[in-house]
Amino acid sequence: MASAKEFEGPTTELLQTLIRNECVNDGTPESGHETRSSDTLKQYLEGSGLDVQTYTPREGRDSMVARIEGSDPNAPSLCLMGHTDVVPVNPDGWRHDPFGAELIDGEIWGRGAIDMLNLTSSMAVAFRHLADTGFRPKGDLVYFGVGDEEAGGGLGAEWMAEHHWDAIDADYVLTELGGWSHESADGTRQVTVNVNEKGLAWRRLRVRGTPGHGSMPFGADNALIKAAEIVRRLTEYRPIPELDEIWRAQVASMDVTDDVRDGLSDPAKIWDTIDTLPTPVARTCHAHTHTTFSPNVVHGGQKTNIIPDVIDLEIDIRVVPGDQESAEGHLRAALGDLYDQVEVSDIQNSPATTSPFGSDNALWTSVEKHTQVAYPGAKLVPGLTVGGTDARFYRERGRTAYGTGLFSPGMDFATFGSRFHGHNERIDVASLGLSAEFFWGIARDLLT
Ligand SMILES: [Zn+2]
User: Fold this and answer.
1) 197 in Cβ contact with 318 (< 8 Å)
2) What pairs with residue 203 in β-bridges?
3) CATH number for 407
């Protein structure tokens, strides 16, 4: 047996190296530099005598794959997938060096400590321990250290799925994002495991007007004024909420009054109920249950004294699973008579994805079982990821992928959320050990 405590040391060390590698992905192809961490992981896993492959979609952007071959090609396989890139930082907001990976009062500080180098390193340490101890699974165990998650995976998981699917394919996949927990009023620990995620339908709206002199604006056909009205209508728009089984499970696990619980379960009351909640909770509840529209970029105008004839708006649309309406249908409903005055074009599309969960899914039951090691009696709560993760490339191909790890009791959703892409990102060493033990246990359970 290996205990969470025993995993803490090696996981801490590996996490520190990954943070110090500074694989910052700012969205440009020449950023990221994930080859540094791909090499670190390759070296670390080769130490147990495994053959590790690296893949280069572009110079400097390597991903890597290691495999413990199963004895039965028909047995189910498991992939542990962790991304190696991190988002940029503004060091002014930090109390410690964001790439120093210092260990202070039982916590490792640095960009990626939560998203998601903590899990990337926990998975690698569990994998290495299995290899070192001669683990002989029936189905394959795959470790996938992948780049470019933070920019959508075009040089990472999406590229690998298109070009090297056989190298990364597995029936079951564990990756970010989930594993936080809280105790409900009756003392039951509730652990969120994300089983699906929202789709994305980014759109550009080109708004046209008639140019004129800025000195005579009365009654002008000003594209910017029209664009402002479009933004206002999008903000007011209330699409039909999607209150599915996963949402109901989340509501049941929340620490709220019965009134709030009822309101959050009723399509006619949910919007007004959300309005009464504190901002971070309200924001989460809204995003979980609605297709959302966030106008985030505006381009246009030429000169202070010219009435603009073209304004481009970029709208970040996130589609909730189960929503049957198209993005265009939503825009038509939101904009009303103004819809016919804009040209709508696609920026990016990916559908919402869902994995099966529950007592008849082997990955779900295995995750549930191994949650009990740290938290006897704990309950799994299925959740929805409102952003995007690499899990979608597996779910799109019919594989079961969950976002989860396992953290110490203090890591509730609010704590996790405030550090995610935030200042002072950090993870406690105990959570590193718990996650490593968790992945180790699941691999042994599911594959033998
Ligand atoms: Zn992430």
Assistant:
1) no
2) 315, 346
3) 3.40.630.10
Q: How many domains does the chain have?
A: 2
CA 134 to chain centre: 33
For the segment 246-262, the average pLDDT, to the nearest whole number, is 94
Both tokens of 306, joined, read: 């010219």
Same domain, 167 and 230: no
C-alpha 88 – ligand 1 centre gap (Å): 13
Residue 122: the pLDDT is 98
- How many Å lie between the centroid of ligand 1 and the Cα of residue 71? 32
Is residue 286 one of the residues assigned to a domain? Answer: no
86 strand-pairing partners? 24
Residues 28 and 58 in one domain: yes
pLDDT tens across 342-375, in order?
999 999 999 999 999 999 999 999 999 999 999 9
Is pLDDT at 1 greater than 80 in this prediction? no
CA 387 to chain centre: 5
Q: Is the pTM of this model over 0.85?
A: yes
Q: Is residue 210 part of a domain?
A: yes
Q: Report how far ligand 1's centroid is from the alpha carbon of 285 (Å).
A: 21
Please say whether the beta carbons of 355 and 397 come within 8 A: no
Q: How far apart are the first and last CA of the chain?
A: 15
The rounded Å distance from CA 83 to ligand 1 centre is 7
